[in-house]
Please model this.
Amino acid sequence: QVRLVESGGGLVQAGGSLRLSCAASGRTFSRDTMGWFRQAPGKEREFVARINWSGGTGYADSVKGRFTISRDNAKNPVYLQMNSLKPEDTAVYYCAATAGSVWLYWGQGTQVTVSS
Model:
């Protein structure tokens, strides 16, 4: 059974930092695109960042310059370093992985709360 498990969420003051990790089991994702999404209360899930197998990255405009996605295929498949956090970054953050071009695998999410 393929599982993605996020960790590293929590409560932080505005301007602070958090680092999210995503552990995988059941298969390797070294050749797949990995990414992070988030869902705030009352809003739809939205794309945050992605990284492909060769290290190419993409970010939502709202997090560019503040968040950095990275991967270490020897350990956890993907990380999200979040700096200069804002209250509007408060959401449940989800790790995801593709199969082909489809975001097929999803974690259960980790809560990030940024206080003002």
